[in-house]
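Q: What would this complex look like in 3D?
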Amino acid sequence: MSDLTHLNTRGEAHMVDIGEKQATHRMAIAEGRIVMEASTREALLAGNLAKGDALATARIAGIMAAKRTAEVIPLCHPLPLSHLDVELTALDEPMAMHCQVRAETRGATGVEMEALNGVQAALLTVYDMCKALDRGMRIEGVQLVHKSGGRSGEWNR
Amino acid sequence: MSDLTHLNTRGEAHMVDIGEKQATHRMAIAEGRIVMEASTREALLAGNLAKGDALATARIAGIMAAKRTAEVIPLCHPLPLSHLDVELTALDEPMAMHCQVRAETRGATGVEMEALNGVQAALLTVYDMCKALDRGMRIEGVQLVHKSGGRSGEWNR
Amino acid sequence: MSDLTHLNTRGEAHMVDIGEKQATHRMAIAEGRIVMEASTREALLAGNLAKGDALATARIAGIMAAKRTAEVIPLCHPLPLSHLDVELTALDEPMAMHCQVRAETRGATGVEMEALNGVQAALLTVYDMCKALDRGMRIEGVQLVHKSGGRSGEWNR
Amino acid sequence: MSDLTHLNTRGEAHMVDIGEKQATHRMAIAEGRIVMEASTREALLAGNLAKGDALATARIAGIMAAKRTAEVIPLCHPLPLSHLDVELTALDEPMAMHCQVRAETRGATGVEMEALNGVQAALLTVYDMCKALDRGMRIEGVQLVHKSGGRSGEWNR
Amino acid sequence: MSDLTHLNTRGEAHMVDIGEKQATHRMAIAEGRIVMEASTREALLAGNLAKGDALATARIAGIMAAKRTAEVIPLCHPLPLSHLDVELTALDEPMAMHCQVRAETRGATGVEMEALNGVQAALLTVYDMCKALDRGMRIEGVQLVHKSGGRSGEWNR
Amino acid sequence: MSDLTHLNTRGEAHMVDIGEKQATHRMAIAEGRIVMEASTREALLAGNLAKGDALATARIAGIMAAKRTAEVIPLCHPLPLSHLDVELTALDEPMAMHCQVRAETRGATGVEMEALNGVQAALLTVYDMCKALDRGMRIEGVQLVHKSGGRSGEWNR
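A: Here is my prediction, written as structure tokens for the whole assembly.
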């Protein structure tokens, strides 16, 4: 038998039974960053100046992806997010855009997958917007920062 | 006006016109890794031994996500992949699972977004499978490795 | 700061926090119409006579779209509809097909977006069915008619 | 038999055979507007000032919906858009936001459904953003403006 | 190594390379049936009499599912259907509804998966419509009937 | 009026009102099989030996499809599965692969559609993996085995 909860007693992938878990308030915060050339970031922020669409596009991508996490991650339970917020900020060391996503629900399982998936979609959208300038951008440090609610309690990095 | 191709002359996000581009053979290879505790990786590989479902789940997630990239990345053109391959291998320094995705199409625009999205989905699925053991896993180094086809020619990291 | 609930305190789009809202019975009714040539409507109704597929297709489109509203409207919360009904009727002044959708749920947020999205999908499907006859059809008067449940109480046009 | 191309010889809904049609450049422009209180529009435009997210959200919704039109409209053929542009502008008579979408492809069937669906999604997203202020907004005049390419040639309103 | 084309040389699932295959006209016909009590079928056909919605719903489900086959079948290539037709007829021995789907495309790979998936979705929709009357219905004989186009040529059952 | 619950009093398809139903624990088990040549099954099981991907792909397809059942079956209510398990076993009489899916939720409506849809997707994925060897495979006996929870109580085949 396996230590992996996502394998059943036959060693096969399954969607874990959460039927007995309590519906409680759950929250997760995840983050990540996309490292880029200084000139790329300058172009991104300048392009954003006109109407704000460059960063808004990435935020919207993060929000929409987070809602559909269970369609992408095979063994992830569907759950209705009650709150989602995506924040993109410029980082200087290294030259990067940083993304933080906060997800909340009232349900029987946690929302860390939704938060992480939102981060990845937002950062990859930044890559898409800038890729004609700089194909070498790199997504780094995608990780959970905080998690609360449910039996396992609070977790902080 | 902006240097970002994804903003139109009004500074607004749009889906770039590729109507004049040639339909040629296009290929992209992307990679990334998820860094984890030694004990987590041991459990993952042990759990995989029984039926192979642990890594297969991640590979399938990568393939299925790559096909739907244009649903997730707002300004990405839909295109029919002609080939997709996801490879997951164990890395020791640092202790990690490495993912490489190779995507191909015959079309008017490149497939780097599909390759990168496949990498992210596969790695996030590994996170999902192992998260009960180790919430601190970290996705790193998601980047393009190679790109060929189209007017911009070949690109290698 | 903004009067728009869908912008957070930084002025950025986010999915509003509904975690504290009560799960109550919610209902919304929306309507709209598609204005067309008399001859187009005659063909639509005649075509429908054979097996009923013309109007059934539009009703099904409205139902299926309403269920997926949160995939289309970026900041809309996903919610499980408990009831949905789409009604299409002929209107004579102006010559049109009228659509009314009634949506219900038991949840923490309203269902007006689902009702409106159902109306739009049903009417656009009518457009699709008839467009070879009449490209000039026009969708008009898509609006909320009634809303009840939740803290804001009942609203009627 | 029916005049409706979307019913087969048995009177049943089907997806029309376009196998013999030429793959040519196709373009469609559609428009519509959402009529609102002056104070609502003022709040929308003021809220947009901060970061631009209010209108960007609607533009992105229009783009993403247009790409997925064939998932919503039952008998619509899937086709890969080569270009999509969504424009939102303020109208004063009546007080409204106007939306215009231009869609292009190189394919065997037209893109008017994609353009119209993009208009509807963008306008409904504006409704969603403003609905806490004004439930009485109304979507009007959703219609095709221009269509070119294919055997049926150019069409202008 | 494996005889299964869907496993790569490492024995891992992948999406087969079809980049070298010719884009030709491809067609597939698939069928299946749902066996039910005589009284159930009577109720289905009687319910259909009113507006035709019962069978139309199943036909539409088959069409819409066929278009999205590559989202459901992990290693199936996305391809744009150029024609799709779903036919439902009453069978008496055994008492059943029979479904036949004909799918066509012009592309580099066959459409049998689309035809089969359309059959399954239409039959399962019949199950859904009748299940309150008869939970014991059974789907049988889902199979390919005909396939043409491409290097492997014509195949008939 | 009709005996079909999915037709409203006007004889039109609608999504039944489940607003008054109790949220209770619901479970359903469904099964089916795909009949194939002995040599095909041998190749499938041999191909599975290497890394297990052949059967894992089918299991994952079943799980992911079950979660999205309400997108495929037009009048099916969306509901969040709390548990899903897909089992594939070899049958000898007739030579086949057998699939059993067990689905559970805590909600206001049953999960038999999810279980049946999971069976169909898993079996069709087996078809896809083996179709280059054997186009004549046949899906048989897709049916409900057990259902419990809700007002209608327990049902067993």
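A: To summarize the key features: The radius of gyration of chain D is 17 Å. The longest helix of chain D spans residues 112-130.
Q: Very helpful, thank you.
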